[in-house]
Amino acid sequence: MPYYGVPEKVSDVDNLSKPFQALNMSSVDDDGGSVTFTLERKPEHQQEKPVFVVEEQGRDRWSRKIEFLFACIGFCVGYGNMWRFPYMCFKNGGGAFLIPYLLFLAFGGVPIFFLEQCVGQFTQAEPVHAWNKLCPLLRGIGFASIAVSFLVSVYYNVIMAWSLFYFYQAFKKDIPWVGCHHPWNTPNCYVYNASNPNASGASPSREFLVEEVLKITSGIDEPGPLNVPITICVLVAWILVYFCIWKGVRTTGKVVYVTATGPYFILVILFFRGVTLPGAKEGLIFYLVPSWERLGDPKVWIDAAAQVLYSLAMGMGVNLTFASYNNKHNNILKDAMIISITNCATSVFAGFAIFSILGFIAGQQGKSVADIASQGPGLAFIAYPAALAELPVPQAWAVLFFFMLIMLGLDSQFGQVEIVAACLIEHYPRTLNRYRELVVLVICAILFLLGLSCVTHGGIYVFNLFDSFSAGLSLLFIVFLELIVVAWIYGAERFSLDVADMIGRPISRWWLVCWKYISPLMVLGILLFSLIKYSRITYEDYVYPLWGQAVGWLITVASMLLVPVLIVKTIVDIYCRGKGGGNPAQKLHEAVFVPEIMDAAELKHIEGGAMSPVYLSAL
User: Does domain 65-565 have CATH number 1.10.8?
Assistant: First the structure.
């Protein structure tokens, strides 16, 4: 096991306290080769007691490889697979949409996902230190990833809180989203009647969501009081998240056996029940029958590419962090293929379960599937509950469905919180490692308090603001920079040799071509198209005021700005503060291009130490 800076004998410790200008130190790697680098001494008034960190010492590890696979699959397979992909497929040409989707999966999704997993396993570090090792000047990529995960965590648990509330209500004999006789129903509520098919108004399931669950106000400038039942559900959701990660991967690795596999069992049950219902065929036709002319629409291709990137949750640093808990010589190529293909197949399979039941309810109401199909919370909390209510023993089906949503949300949420905790703990290991449970508790408490803004009577407007701005353009920006760092700064060929050393065999040049050319162009194209086609944010018919739009853009740039800010800080440290000494131009060059004589995977951040590798001395 490699290590750096550890004195070979006691007398050497005394020598460290003597004045010197530079100290040549060497390490021996696993293959018996040696690497020599220079450590420079800080001025006397800046010196602290050196702290030498042994590589990989005390780092969490997955108990079994299957835990890593389940954790990544559980994180990637989330709400978007259930309510966004089927709708995107139906909206963009049915089966024809699968052509651009599979193309972008092959040329962009899988290569970028493989790259992130390789970076994590190779560097054996969370995002901040991982990107610091590949390109110190652009270490802000890691901070930006963590910022995005933090921002998404603020509102994401609210979806799980809604699921918990529906799950509880599903046990009642009188299901609250059925019928217009409940206290919250308005005169506009109507129940479909075949004798009066032209009746209009709000369905019971919609009124339950709007009037009872959300208690929605007229706009974002009218927040209103907290919705107490949903607030309690948010608290329960955060308690569940806390106990899933409070011991790190030791607990996460056990929880994913249930949370990653449970949704598949339920999805299979819903699939077989759906396809055996009358009218299911019509729903599946809407879902799958190709509209080839739609392939001429550029927006279809952009939607396919965006769906691939977002469904694999790239740029958030979670997959990278999970991979860093692997053994360094794990076959990460095989794992990346399994995870990405499983995620894609889940999205397609979920469409069968969703649209078969939507076809049934459309037939029951004499409507077209297009009239009731929707995406986002509207599908999960309005259309689908109404459809399940038409089945025999609707309580049982509702309980299964919302339990599946709870597990889907739990997997994704604790992955995002884990990366924030891992960053803090690994940045200050001596101070925080022994207090991991407390660190995780504080993070969960802060996120719970911030999330309360989404559970007031006007909280849906805040929720929609976070959902629209926290992980859209910023993720595309992060992923694009990741590709630039690995392919063009660190070097795709050099990185491919590192990967080959990890998995024990060379990788195809296909990956290098994707990393250097195809994937960056794809991401850049989506980013530019999103900016060109940007329109003011709305929630249904409500248009946000200008100050609301401004807050949304602040959420977006909050994570992106970390990259240029840290670039400027590094340059100032080198040229103005003389940090690291020596030739500033050389120090800046080494902060961009990691010297090939150094093995990036073995470079360690030294907390509070008086000495650091020369090219990292500007950090």
Answer: no
